[in-house]
Specification:
Radius of gyration: 21 Å
Number of domains: 2
Helix content: 55-70%
Oligomer: single chain
Distance between the termini: 51 Å
Largest sheet: none
Order of helices and strands: HHHHHHHHHHH
Amino acid sequence: MNRAEWAEIGRAMQRLWPMADWDRLAERGTLEVWGTDMADFDGEQVKAAVTSLYRDGREWPPNSAHIRNRILELSHGSVTEGEAWELLQRAVRKFGHAADDKANEWLAEQDPIVAEAVQRLGYRDYCLSNLDDQTTWRAQFRRIFEQAGEQVAKGRRYEGIPGLPQREPRQLADALREQLPQIDGGT
């Protein structure tokens, strides 16, 4: 988003929340900070997020953190845990255990968070597991899916902040996998 787009969005926010002290926010440089904070997003995304916050009945104008979080909510995470589980089942039926790379690629096209959760779970291990353990696998998947979603959202929320270490998704997946108990027929 460029400065002109932010200025237009700022004017729209003034119309949506006229009770705010916009002159004071401008004098303190707050509006400029908010614009800089959201510069990595597309102007249309910011506009949509502001509109959705207004339509939710928000009484006071959102700051840039609220807007960033709403953008992330609107652009990712639209898949529920049940839908994510069904995507995993479809991938197993469609690709089987031998084509795990193709399955992961297909899952990433459907939803990147689902793909990450399935990788953390262990696609091939799941395919080769005892089907009587579906309840256990689903419980593990639910927990992994929720954690993956939270981690991805947090990473996107803090993306681009200077001085923060950036971890690769694979490192995150490996660290999480080490923390989770192993699932197999005997344990």
